[in-house]
Amino acid sequence: MTDRSCYVDGHWLVGGGEVLTSTSPVDGRQLWSAPEAGADDVSNALAAARSAQPEWERTPLSERTAILETFADQLTDNGAELADAISAETGKPTWEARTEVASVSGKVALSIDAHADRNPEVRLNDTASLAHRPVGVVGVLGPFNFPAHLPNGQIIPALLAGNSVVYKPSELTPLVASVHTRLLAEAGLPSGVFNLAIGARRAGEALVAGNVNAIAFTGSVDTGHAIHRSLADRPDVLLALEMGGNNPLVVAHSDDDEAVVNLIVRSAFITAGQRCTCARRLFIPSGADGDGLLDRLVDVTERLRVGAPDEQPEPFMGPLINVDAADRVRAHVGRLVAAGGVQIAGEETLAGAFVRPAIVATDGLDVPDEEVFGPVITVERFDDLETAFARAADTRFGLAAGLVSTDPAHFERFKAVVTAGVVNFNCPTTGASGRLPFGGVGASGNHRPAGWTAADFCAFPVATMAYQHPAEAASPLPGLNDPGGVA
User: Fold this and answer.
1) Any idea which residues carry the catalytic annotation?
2) Which of 83, 123, 301, 419 has minimal CB crowding within 10 Å?
3) pTM
């Protein structure tokens, strides 16, 4: 469905806002177009969610689980439509889009396990027990880089816990959101439990300002901070922020350059560098060993295929999300070079939203501490490992960090120096397990990680003390006068 921007109370509706159009980053062809959701549309979606939530909460967990398992089965058996939408709208190679769909499907089983682990019902003894209640209406604001997987990782735990959801996807990926929503609806979700409002900034602002109990946001630092400020006087709204990073990768020692280069490339350039966990800063030892590793890295980087999603042989990466994003990456590289950096890979200029993965040597430069969302990594050489660790830790962000070494003791020291929510050893910074929390600190997040612990911001604990009769809890009152007595 490409002519409706709203799915409210079980019905596809025309939005009341400006016309929003999605185009292919490969060739600019139109993929989706419709009037976006206006403030009234978002308000109606929230009202539908508020009305539907109590009955959904009362629905037995087994029934909620069965509906979501049906959704997973649909994707397992026939996820091609969603994969095609992801490739078309983001430019991801076919192989990567299919991997994303598999993650969307797999999230259901992971969420079922996480819900049982994080939201248990526990009886401590005859009088004390613990249960969990859904927070109510959850607003989900999704990103463009994983337009199905990342919002799905918040939607599924929220629905499983008994919440209703209003979902505002990235305005850059409305086609993916439309397909995703239809598949959820076809799985059997009751009307009003899941609602969609496709739109740009105003729709997002309306959702955050609306009658919600929680907001889950994945996206840029600036937008995350704006949401945080807008909710400053609403402590009753639970806020979960995941906002990216300026992630370091340190190579302490390598006895296998081929394996290490593979790890670096997957850290820096996978998904065209548009993962929040991508390595942005690489630290390599000075000397002949480091020289050899860097030469090998440059050679492999220059040979990475960049192309359309369905090209054969298949590309390593596709375009960036749009031409503006590509221009920002080109401008960033230009600023680094103008400041004295040396571009040692990726100088070839490609058209439109396509860019070559770039490596820029920045020894001695004061590189701004910012996230550049694209396939660019800076390289700094070091003589002393402790200095490299300190440089790696010198960032206001705190999402991901990685170390390559043959000495586990190096990793123990590295973990003690860096501050990040994801700290990896001898694997890509982009490596993450669905059975672990996912998120960051500092400018990267607000201590509300998703992944396994997304369940934590979808329900709240209820501690209960209960006795069979009031007399069982009664105890003598101190400081009480005798009947008829005088104080």
Assistant:
1) 242, 276
2) 123
3) 0.96
